[in-house]
Amino acid sequence: MNFLNRAxxxxxxxxxxxxxxxxxxxxxxxxxxxxxxxxxxxxxxxxEYKETSRNGICGLIKGKGEKTIGIRADIDALPMEDKKxxxxxxxxxxxxxxxxxxxxxxxxLGAAKxxxxxxxxxxxxxxxxxxxxxxxxxxxIHMVEEGVLENPRxxxxxxxxxxPYIEVGKIGIKRDVVNAASNPFDLKIIGKGGHGAYPHSxxxxxxxxxxxxxxxxxxxxxxxxxxxxxxISICTIHGGTASNIIPDEVELSGIIRTMTxxxxxxxxxxxxxxxxxxxxxxxxxxxxxxxxxxxxxxxxDNMVDVLKKSAEExxxxxxxxxxxxxxxxxxxxxxxxxxxxxxxYFLGIRNEKKGIVNPLHSNLFDVDEDCxxxxxxxxxxxxxxxxxx
Length: 389
Known about the structure:
Its EC number is 3.-.-.-. Helix content is 34%, strand content 25%. The protein has ten helices and 16 strands. The chain has an eight-stranded mixed sheet with strand order 1-2-4-3-5-16-6-15. Strands 10-12-8-13 form a four-stranded antiparallel sheet, with helices on one face. Helix 1 packs across helix 10 (371-388), helix 6 runs antiparallel to helix 7 (261-281) and helix 8 packs across helix 10.
């Protein structure tokens, strides 16, 4: 079966749907319009679904067997201004689909339409997982807790993300670790304020903070193997009100990114030890809040093999980019990858001739919509091959 031709047959319909989503971006779990539009499509195709995780949706295409594959798309947008000038620019001020989730959602709907039309040929089931809040706290963890991977039990799951550094018509595949784990943090360094001319009478939290910040970088440069990526970034510092007043406290925030469970545990433990140790040694104290953000995203070798073979059938091996390095960005699909064998890949959207060159999370972000049938076909081919071979 030529899934790419099937996808091209409905390309105009899918482009219209994608532009609807792009014009009506919604945030976090507050996705009432988006959810209604997805439901409308599924109902028109006769696909059963249930609501989950505060505006998440799980559709089900029932084939002839017990084997089940999941396909996931994230559906939320970002709180930023759309500065593109085109017919489908965002209609809502301060909201924009700047990360391509409108495309992800459209591709899953297109795959659903095609796979549902051939369900009698499927030796198993397809679960359609529409995840809210990927850009914030992630709906995936709630969907897993609510049993989205059960009844019927999902045996494997696939997902994709648009990638502006890969040419349209191509995809990128990475084995093993694909994305980092994230631990956002807030750190308060507490001293004793007073006059800047008499520092000996005070406990200066700014000086303590400077020593703590410098010491944090030694964790990365001297305690983590240089072959293994890890990051500690201080992104905000707030302290003081005047040039002659030493403040009582300084507040810092930032992120920790690591690539393995072991390094995640080690770096967060050392972070606390260093912050507390230096603060105490310099007569101050600290308060630490480290959030357990998204985990590492791992690709399963067997599922990558299925995906790669399927993609070769759709676009040819010459259009598959073998990615060598993981990304320091995070992805809530990681919660699914911890539960089931997974394959997550990157869909090329770049087209310099059309001016499609802007990065993710940019006010000018857009995609070459010729990526849509490619994504649909690869999702369909992978699901079909997993269930039938």
